[in-house]
Amino acid sequence: MALIFLRSLIYNVLFYALLVFWILLGIPTFLMPRWGIINIAKYWGLSSIWLMRVVCNTKVEYRFADKIPKGPLIVASKHQSMWETFALLQFLDQPLYILKRELKWIPFFGWYLSKADMIGVNRGAGGRSLVEMTRMAREEMHRGRQLIIFPEGTRRPVDAPPRYRPGVGQIYVGSDVPCIPVALNSGLFWPRRTFMRYPGTIVIEFLDPLPPGLSRDEFMERIQTVIEDASNRLVEDGRREQAQLFGRVPSAPAAKA
């Protein structure tokens, strides 16, 4: 475990150094169309994934990416780690995120979010923010963009009970576009709230798309069932791999209800 600790420390130092590198390299994109900063973000994600493999021996397996529909789309992903926030970018032509508006106030990083036309919302506005968020997401998707959304709203530890929020259902019903669910096991290898990075294989699996036109209740039931069932399966596979590597599953922060 001492070697894993050292590799994790090295990776985190290099990860943030790499982030600074791409932030500086992206400065000319302020004078370019949106695709400029989107490509910078994609290269940052790919280089971070490559670095994790080289330093931490953490490989990645992508399954069924050919299921991703073209054009306007909701990508509803399980959220266990920071990893998927940049790993999903490479699969989409015009990715879109919904985020706290305060993030746009961060120098450079926030300015890039604004340049990329990400949707900033005031979470303190209650129901009004949900209505406004739905409207802006619908407009952007009808321009051909793909919305990446985490239905639980925040990172959840592996084994934590699911807490799917109604916002994704509201956006789905109001947008009339397909939704592709995404399952993963990233939390085993990049756990939240710790700098430890574990060797093994992160698996991200694209599931069968859900067509537009379902009721909100049916959509919410189906999206939670398929994502949770597939993610639980991937987590169990990942734990078996860890057991082979370590003789046991490495300890991680306990899941909280």
Tell me, what's the shape?
globular
What is the average of the pLDDT values?
A: 93
Number of helices: 7
Encode the helix/strand succession as letters: HHEEHEHEHEHEEH
Structural class: alpha/beta
User: What distance lies between the first and last C-alpha atoms, to the nearest angstrom?
Assistant: 28 Å
Largest sheet: 7 strands, mixed
Query: How are the strands ordered across the major sheet?
Result: 1-7-6-2-5-3-4
- Uncertain runs are none
Oligomer classification:
single chain
Radius of gyration: 18 Å
Our count of domains comes out at: 1
Bin the strand percentage. Answer: 5-15%
Question: What's the number of extended β-strand segments?
Answer: 7
* Helical amount: 40-55%
Describe the structure.
The protein is an alpha/beta fold and 257 residues long. The protein has one domain. It is built from seven helices and seven strands. A seven-stranded mixed beta sheet has the order 1-7-6-2-5-3-4, with helices on both faces. The radius of gyration is 18 Å and the shape is globular. It starts with a helix and ends in an 11-residue tail after the last helix.
